[in-house]
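task queued by scheduler; priority normal; single chain, no ligands, no partner chains; default sampling; output format set to structure tokens
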Amino acid sequence: MKPIGLILGMVVVVLSNGVVLIQSAANRSGPPVQAITLTERELPILPRDLDDSSVSLHLRWRAQASEAASKPGPVDPPFDAAKLQELGFDCTIPANPAEARPPVLTVVYVALEYGGGTGAGPTQLILADASRNQEALRAKYPDPQKHLIVRAVVRVLFEWGQDLRTGSERPHRWIGYLEEILPGAIYVPQPFARELNRLKPRSGEAPRYSVTLHYGRNLEPWVASVTVF
């Protein structure tokens, strides 16, 4: 007779897998809520072991049209105190800055604007807006071919003290950054993964492939097609 603990463990695994399958089925029930075609600039392949044939993609974005990096820097945070309060954060300035306690990471909805184009350069997905209400964000940005609505994690920090670059005293303020787009990795099924695995190590900046993503009711994406140029 098998130990009770082993049996219970097997039951938990089966139930967990069942929940995942149910959620996946619910996400893909009906037509996709949004579909968008992006290039390698916006969907690079995540690093993996040499003997690993699986392929996952990572959604790259930038905070401003002028930025070359895929993440915002400390100079111009994408979320000021007014926007953070709109997202539900308490941005009261503490009497003692040293006692400021940033709130926990919070999941919100963000709109990423796609500039399109196929030339070399940084990702063309640019942070446009954020909201706690998915429907309100879609109403404001109704074109799913131009604006991608996704779930994301926001990190909030309290800025104070001396600016190490200029030596001047910084104003006390709450600032926010986009920490991560959810999900962090997008799995590529066969035979699409086989096509991407044929690509040689990257030697230039021009994108080598495009990917059409479909998003379901839960804003979980899946790869609908891959085109290698």
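post-processing summary
- The longest strand covers residues 147-162.
- The chain has one domain: 33-228.
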